[in-house]
Design brief:
399 residues, alpha+beta, six-stranded antiparallel sheet, 20 strands, elongated
């Protein structure tokens, strides 16, 4: 009706087939007849933008996430039952197999159920006692894992008689956290793995008296780990291969730190807690949740170190500082538990001729982040930027 404005609607009207839509129709009509037409237009444009974002941005992002999930699935295929992943040697294919026939050793193949408590888990393997001034605990002969460490002069509470702080625990204890060294074979002969039962030359490891673990494979290749401990928090691990077979033996030494469950962190923006390392003289910090939807975070480096940091404590692997290696941070999920891993593997294969011996020396720090001690290790052992285990923030040059 010319001149009438009472029922004029400035937008095309849908046909309302049923009385059940009348409430929606009334709201729509009220909005269109009000002074809010600009608002309605803005809402329509917003919906268009959201739909466009979904199509142009989120859909491709989902495809990338699906691709990443596929990579994570491939990584998990290399896991042992306890979630530990043996790093593949350089040249291995994406599925964990190698064009050179690399043998990837597994982790401890035990049931997924946890022991009743930490003490029960410690009894599942024969052990060598660690008896030093500041560290106590033991090394498991099954797997040769450094998986039982307490810091004797740090207590859980200020109460008298409070127990010492526990840093590392075995794989079937609550919140497993351990360090381990091994080899990845390039030409097939069996190497030690999580099931290997090592032979020890002593019943205890003390400063000044190294512990020697040894095991010989069916081909006559003898593997040796010589473990030394100082008066503080540093262990030195010398890996030897005595080739008593008739063929050359080629392998890549590696080390790894495996942690189960996501620890409680402060979430304080100037304090990093989680995977950490120094590669090619540069600090790299990775949050736990950043690893959940990402493939292994790998870096090629010569010198430096890699590990996992807590507010006060650190577990870190320190390869030979003049050796090229690949450092990696990993996450996986097994048995409804998050698994985190920091590892390194030596890039160049170590080829040991028949009758010869190969050697690789690494270190394992497990203890408190005391600045003066980190500085001393950095200078005495030549560990690049070891003081950066402490988060000094943006004003490092002052703090």
């Amino acid at each position: 009706i010319p001149g009438a404005v009472t029922d004029t609607i400035p937008f095309p009207l849908p046909i309302i087939p049923s009385t059940k839509y009348q409430p929606i129709w009334k709201i729509y009509k009220a909005i269109c007849m009000s002074d809010q037409r600009n608002l309605v237009i803005a809402i329509a444009l917003s919906l268009a933008i959201l739909l466009g974002f979904q199509f142009l941005v989120e859909a491709p992002q989902q495809e990338r996430q699906d691709e990443t999930l596929g990579k994570l699935t491939q990584e998990q295929a290399k896991q042992g039952s306890d979630g530990a992943i043996t790093p593949a040697a350089p040249g291995a294919a994406a599925d964990g197999k190698s064009t050179a026939g690399i043998v990837v050793p597994g982790a401890i193949s035990t049931a997924a159920t946890l022991a009743a408590n930490r003490a029960a888990a410690l009894k599942l393997s024969a052990r060598v006692v660690i008896d030093s001034q500041r560290l106590g605990g033991s090394i498991a002969l099954k797997g040769g894992r450094i998986d039982d460490l307490t810091m004797l002069d740090y207590k859980e509470t200020i109460e008298e008689g409070s127990p010492a702080v526990t840093l590392l625990s075995p794989s079937r204890a609550p919140n497993p956290y351990f360090g381990e060294f091994g080899w990845v074979s390039e030409n097939g002969p069996k190497v030690p793995d999580g099931e290997t039962l090592w032979t020890a030359n002593h019943k205890s490891l003390t400063p000044g008296r190294p512990l020697t673990l040894s095991w010989t494979n069916p081909d006559g290749v003898r593997f040796i780990q010589i473990i030394e401990i100082d008066d503080n928090f540093m262990l030195t691990v010398t890996q030897k291969v005595e080739n008593n077979s008739a063929k050359p033996f080629s392998s890549h030494p590696y080390g790894r730190i495996v942690r189960t469950d996501t620890p409680t962190t402060l979430g304080f923006y100037i304090l990093h807690e989680g995977p950490i390392g120094v590669f090619n003289d540069k600090l790299k910090e990775v949050d736990y949740d950043d690893l959940h939807e990402a493939p292994p975070n790998k870096t090629n480096s010569t010198g430096g170190w890699i590990g996992i940091s807590d507010k006060y404590w650190l577990a870190a692997l320190i390869p030979e500082q003049n050796t090229s290696y690949i450092g990696a941070f990993r996450h996986s999920r097994k048995n409804q538990q998050d698994k985190y891993q920091a590892d390194f593997i030596v890039q160049a294969p170590q080829v040991v001729a028949p009758g010869a011996t190969g050697k690789s020396v690494s270190r394992f720090f497990a203890g408190a982040k005391e600045v003066h001690l980190l500085d001393r290790y950095e200078k005495q052992l030549g560990i690049a930027r070891f003081d950066l285990a402490v988060d000094f923030g943006w004003f490092y040059f002052l703090t």
